[in-house]
Amino acid sequence: MTQPEKRKRVPVHGVLLLDKPVGMSSTQALAKAKWLLNAQKAGHTGTLDPFATGLLPLCFGEATKFAQDLLDADKTYETVVHLGIKTSTGDTEGEVLERRPVDVTLTQIESILEKFRGPISQMPPMHSALKRDGKPLYEYARAGITLERETRDVLIHKLELLAYDAPMLRLRVACSKGTYIRVLGEDIGAALGCGAHLSALRRTEIGALGISNTLTLDQLAEYPDAERNSCLQPVDSLLSSFPALVLDDALANRFRQGQRIALDRAGVAAPCESGRVRVYDAQSVLLGTAKIVESTVLAPERLMASIASH
Questions:
Q1: Active site includes 49?
Q2: What torsion, rounded to 10 degrees, do the Cα atoms 267, 271, 276, 281 define?
Q3: CA-only gyration radius of the chain, Å
Q4: How far is residue 249 CA from its own chain's centroid?
Q5: Is 288 left (phi over 0), alpha (psi -120 to 50) or beta?
Q6: Which domains does the chain have, with CATH numbers?
Q7: Structure confidence by residue, pLDDT tens digits, 180-207
Q8: pTM for the whole thing?
């Protein structure tokens, strides 16, 4: 019996804004999308826990070069904190460790939430992907081992109370990278004196990207094979927060070769005094990212390959 012939993977360039379903890991979601698009190269921009849903940008081809920019971006979540029950993982996947009565008022909740706005310190949970000696912490946790961890400083830009129907507390959180929403929920429960865990978590924003433009895997699968690439956002959708700079053909060729360019000598106005920019040629084709140095020098950073179609 002959084996079915494997599909030959093809170059695909762009960003899929996926609405990840509950119960699926980020790696599983990436593998499914990569198969549906028949793509050669893909990566995701920071994981969502299996129990979490929402915005998971998947990068294909040349877009993988810029995935780090989303890892560093601020994020927004909506979450349901279940007061009165503490679990081993801080979410619905763990074992119940403790149950306490919930007798808190809206006034008490608002007072406690105020303490978690702005800069705070968090202890990374044992059930996390942080690595120690090459192994993620969750592997130690599953083996019943608890390791010492150092607290990390994070920033809670916004912490909004959306609804309270005891014992469920619904919140919207806008935060810096590295923030653990599970830990935030547990810490709020501890401050209220009743303990808590997350019963739902949904990511709605990463940087300038939002949930409104997402697709589910089922929706992607409904497209004919030849039309699925039309679901991808262009590579520069990852870079929309950077100022844009356009180079003429001669300067664009120098940029493609990785050469630094003195913008003042070339008669090109820098879009900012310092920081990162996205660079285009005169035909509005993305060339890559660069840094503005000393107000006028354009230093290439990550370059697009000429084969990229986005």
A1: yes
A2: -60
A3: 23
A4: 35
A5: left
A6: 14-72+209-238 (3.30.2350.10), 75-206 (3.30.2350.10), 242-303 (2.30.130.10)
A7: 999 999 999 999 999 999 999 999 999 9
A8: 0.89
